[in-house]
Amino acid sequence: MIKTETAYKKALNRLQEDQSFIQKQKKTLVDKGLTAEQVTKALQPTISFHEQLKEEVTSYEHIIRGEFDTIINLHDIGKVLIAYRIYLGISQQELANRLDTSPAQVSRDERNEYYGATIERLQQVMEAMSMVSETRIQPVV
């Protein structure tokens, strides 16, 4: 998952480089006399990585536009939190400041896509990004 504008720009450059590399490799293999099927098999791993990177770039572009998938289960909540931070244009440093924690902690949380985070922690992150109201329902006495 692309998480920063810098990583996005690097991915775009990588896509261009990969496309050029694939074309050069294809020509080299054809010049060596390989059949179309052999060329396809030889290039398949490179093309597969290229396509995966294209999907990540497309996903990041959707996030920037605020186009999010529906949350189907809580396994995806970490990705959604990261995507929302990106959409808001908030750096990990800024989120750390809002949470009164270290940037290293936010980096770890995001690297693990908040796997194992408590409900309270997820709530804090959501509140820090104004995804939910900070008001709590008070118990009736």
What are the SSEs and their pairings?
Elements: H1 5-31, H2 36-64, H3 77-88, H4 92-99, H5 103-111, H6 119-128
Helix pairs in contact: 1-2, 4-5
What tags apply to this protein structure?
2 domains, 141 residues, elongated, 434 Repressor (Amino-terminal Domain)
Indicate the radius of gyration in whole angstroms.
21 Å
Shape: elongated
**Alpha-beta content class:** mainly alpha
Low-confidence runs:
none
Number of strands: 0
The fraction of residues in strands falls at under 5%
Mean pLDDT across all amino acids: 90
Number of domains: 2
Percent in helix: 55-70%
What string gives the helices and strands in order? HHHHHH
Describe this structure in words.
By secondary structure, the protein is mainly α. The protein has 6 helices and no strands. The N and C termini lie far apart (46 Å).
